[in-house]
Specification:
By secondary structure, this protein is an alpha/beta fold. The protein contains 15 helices and 14 strands. The longest helix is centred in the last third of the chain and has 20 residues. It is globular, with a radius of gyration of 22 Å.
Amino acid sequence: MSPRYRVCLMHPMDPRGDKVGGIETHVRLILSRHPPDFHVLMVGLDEIGDCRVGAVRKLNVGGRDIDFLPVARIEADRVNVASRTIGGSTTFRYALGLFRHVPAIARALAGAAASAELQRYEFALPAKLLGLPTIQMIHNAAGRDDKMDSLLKRYWFVQRGNEWLALHAAQRILGVNDGIVQRIARSWPKLAARCEVMTVSVDTGRFAPTRFDCADGVFRLCFAGRLDEFKDPPLMFSVLSGLQARLGGRLEFHYVGASDPHRTPGFSQIEPITIRHGALAPDAVAVVMRSCHAGILTSFYEGMPCYLLEMLASGRPLAAIRLPQFDPLIIDGVSGKLVERSTPPAACASRLVDGFADLWAAIQAGRVDPARIAALVEPYAIETQMQRLFARHRELQNAASRKPARSPPFAPTHGARRPQSVE
């Protein structure tokens, strides 16, 4: 099928790189599983150093051909590290590159209708300058007083301004859980009609249920993602330390991600039982999850973690600090255990240790069914979610084509010559 529609996907990552996180997983699924009537222009970063910044390069991602236009060169070892200064921030450097190369993006989009797909508030203004109808996805529900990266905490007013601009500029607003959508409706009632709940997706072909292997009597727990402050690594490590003592040392913790756990107090106690896999490609992540028995989540807040959906799709239960969006997915006696956050943290950790001990006993006794767990995430399967997402892009582009033409400063012009691809 010849692509009729185009999506301009703006996000600070290299589709060939190893940046990890739920948003990055979502972006890679868009690149590799977009419908055949769409073509994607990925405006991203060059982590490898083999691209010309501001020039289009053809890539094949998961069997889909895309155009890749890097707007900044940032080394791979910096992409996964949270910066403590604005100048060193990947997001800030990418945003500067976006503004610098708006004309190049316009040329790459010339001659065909397009809409923008944004995962971060900071990139709304470039999309506006390009005159693109926009879908704004919101992946987390952090408030001003919540735990977060210190840079965001310090410049909260900038984040709030970016949020206002992005939401008012977007034609569609997709929140990954109901709480996000409700907050927007309360804060800006006029935007409520633009909002809907649409979570991230899970590739249920790649992440599929398998039987547990309990032969050696070692309980294996997995966590995949960045160890950001809002994930509450100190509580996570405290739980693992307590569970290690409860199980007489017969515990392994498998960490998939690029963060350095040594930055968190308490890691030294569980370092001997920790296997650090580093950042992995999705197929390798699936292998690690299948080799483990359960997952752990101790976050202060979340959107809808890809890690959670992938663990459940793999047929693996989780014990976690309760958040409302987890209720339909982590069900006591079926797919894990939810514990309310409380003070002091030691009491909370103790209840999670109890939950994991009970879960391990149930797994060993054959009372936990991987197929039943995996069935819980069928509504989040990529086939369902991508169909909904790209239906919204079709609606935006069809509606835009029926309106009188307008000419924003850098809007794509039909018939303009596109730049030569860089191979």
